[in-house]
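Margin note: ligand = magnesium ion.
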Amino acid sequence: QAKDKGRNNYQFFKPEMNVRAVERQVIEANLRVALVRHEFFLHYQPKINLKTGEITGAEALLRWQHPQWGMVPPIRFIGIAEDCGVIVPIGRWVLREACAQTRYWQDSGLDIATISVNISAVEFRRQDFVAAVNTILVETGLPPTCLQLEITESVLMRNAEGSIAILEQLKNMGIQLAIDDFGTGYSSLSYLNQFPIDVLKIDQSFVQDIGYNKTDSDGIIVSAVIAMGNSLKQKVIAEGVEEQEQLSFLKDQHCEEGQGYIFSRPVGAEQFEKLLRQRVMTQIADVAVFPN
Ligand code: C2E
Ligand code: MG
Ligand code: MG
Ligand code: MG
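Resulting structure:
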């Protein structure tokens, strides 16, 4: 036994494994108290109609401001929150905050058609998910047609039949449904047609390929997804648009909406409200007015 060989003998663990496991536990413990300590807030990234330049809505993105660690990016904690289940109360907080904020903007006379909220696999699969969404809509007074739920392609495909049943309940409530990170989750095309989906969000990895290799095949996946979405009557949104060349390509291909740093990074509620008052993102006219 390791114990017999001395108190500080950790021979059964590789040091990095140990550090990783401890780090996970520390993050988990901190996540469990982050909600009551009000350490979470939301950033909003505008979604832009590529024809008119108008803001059609926003995607709400979770931010964690830890008192000692500073800003912790979602990639560092969402997976841990899912594994230990705290994603459920956190996800409900996100949904409520995003819906309440959007209702507030609408009540202030600002034009915002939809708010998009990311839903994790753990939330989506829970028995009480649909009821919880309904409760939040009723409590915040946001019309269901103004809420768009983003679910990744890989989550939907994990149990395609089960997913269809849940999506249909949400659809019947009037909620809009989007497939996030489209192109990364190996959808069978036969299922894609059966999901009652309103929006396809092309993953940013494909968008960032446009104009990168300087060959004729650049953007070929993006064109194919836009064509498919257009014929399935699904709105296509390109994620991660950073460069003018990408934007021009997307407009040429009749991609309906875009999101990305070229328009605006995700920003706090006050900053987003300023963008809403401005309404039009004039990068569409090839002039950047919101440099970040
Ligand atoms: P996502 O839903 O695909 O969100 C898009 C991510 O791309 C965001 O990263 C956004 O800040 C980033 N992004 C936007 N425009 C650009 C661009 O032009 N270039 C580049 N390089 N990146 C861009 P973020 O905020 O770090 O979020 C990462 C992921 O974390 C999200 O991917 C989503 O899967 C997850 N996430 C964020 N908020 C939530 C939440 O409230 N709940 C759940 N379950 N997941 C969330
Ligand atoms: Mg998303
Ligand atoms: Mg995405
Ligand atoms: Mg993603």
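The first strand starts at residue 40 and ends at 49.
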